[in-house]
């Protein structure tokens, strides 16, 4: 259950103007500290607002009743997350375009009248960035670090580790089977020993002589 640590009676600094300022900063990829500065608040304050909004949003998704006092914080959290996601998508698109050589550097449009047909013609000239493999490598290293990151292992290393793992599993299975058989044989031996041993007879009581 989510706890509420609000201070009753304290006026909130979370105003629509500050929310808009935070969203605008987040939409261009500004860091949290810069987004807070753009809104005229401290980074700690923005972090508290975002935490409260996240917790309230998750609680609502889990079916807990919504507290109207959390609406502004939930709205802030969701709008900031959306703005950051859109910015990340645009940035990633530019990285991939740079890797493929499809990133537009300059575009010119020239309109003139064809002297033969007398029709207006629009001519578009586009200059692209040269393909740069480093952009694609950067993306791969961050999305698939286990394969393309600085600590990525070679294909031979992956195969060797897989083989070693399979050998360990096979050895563990063999040991488990051997131990199970040993326990079964030991239990059988104990059962046979118990059945071959006669039950000890109690001594016959000696009658006492009359006094």
Walkthrough of the structure:
By secondary structure, the chain is mostly helical. Helix content is 60%, strand content 9%. The protein has helices at 16-27, 32-39, 43-61, 71-100, 133-143, 145-148, 155-196, and strands at residues 104-113, 120-128. β1 and β2 (120-128) form a beta hairpin. Mean pLDDT is 81; it is low at 6-11.
Short description:
The chain is mostly helical. It is built from 7 helices and 2 strands, in the order ααααββααα.
Summary keywords:
211 residues; mainly alpha; 9% strand
Helix content: 55-70%
User: pLDDT average, as an integer?
Assistant: 81
Principal-axis shape:
flat
Q: Secondary-structure element order, as H and E? A: HHHHEEHHH
Beta-sheet strand percentage?
Answer: 5-15%
Extract low-pLDDT stretches.
6-11
Structural class, judged by helices and strands? mainly alpha
Largest sheet: 2 strands, antiparallel
> Using DSSP, what is the number of strands?
2
Q: Tally the helices.
A: 7
Q: Please report the distance between the alpha carbons of the first and last residues.
A: 86 Å
Radius of gyration equals 38 Å
Show the helix and strand layout.
Blueprint: H1 16-27, H2 32-39, H3 43-61, H4 71-100, E1 104-113, E2 120-128, H5 133-143, H6 145-148, H7 155-196
Antiparallel strand pairs: 1-2
